[in-house]
Amino acid sequence: MTRSIHSFVVPEGVISAIEQSFDLVWRRANSILEDSDSGLILGKDTGEALDTLKRIEALLEEKGYHTYIVREQPDRLGESIVQKVLRHALSSKFIVVENSEPSGHLYEVPHVAKLAECVTVILQQEGKRAAWMFEDAYFKHPNMKKFTYSSANLEETLAEAVKWAEDFYRRFAAAQKEALPWLKEQ
Predict the structure, then answer these.
(1) How far, in whole angstroms, is CA 120 from its chain's centroid?
(2) For 54-68, how does the pLDDT look when each residue is reduced to its tens digit (9 = 90+)?
(3) Domain that holds residue 28
(4) Same domain membership, residue 73 and residue 18
(5) pTM for this predicted structure
(6) How many structural domains is the chain composed of?
(7) In DSSP terms, which residues pair with 94 in a beta bridge?
(8) Which of 54, 61, 97, 101 is buried deepest, with most CB atoms within 10 A?
(9) Closest CA to 151 of 16, 23, 20, 55
């Protein structure tokens, strides 16, 4: 059987394959948004600091996460840097911020952790800090937690941080289900 689309005759098998492909892509995109397996990585993204972000990225990818380092993502005309960060933050399960050196993340963290309420891990190398500005926020914002690491134990510290982020995500989902009647059935 064939169907006419505009002035083309297309076999029904081709149309069916296209529809199945569309459905598969839509389900995958929806799954990514609903049960995101991605993480956004923020922090200083130049020089040796970028090497640290790349190390964090590799460790997260080994654990099965899809990662974003904002600098490496394409820019969109008309979209501010904060909008770009928020777009990636809101599609991520959690955010990892390397906070050992000052950078744009000092401006971005309040938007993603406070305003957008994203689950946010702050990684900070022992003896270093980008600023004191987040120290009291850990108490006011339970979706943020600081983890201190040494260069020798970054992998273990990141594993602990990811476990905390995943646990926070699960606890929050359970609390939502308990508190919000329209989510009780999910």
Answers:
(1) 9
(2) 999 999 999 999 999
(3) 1-35
(4) no
(5) 0.80
(6) 2
(7) 39
(8) 97
(9) 55
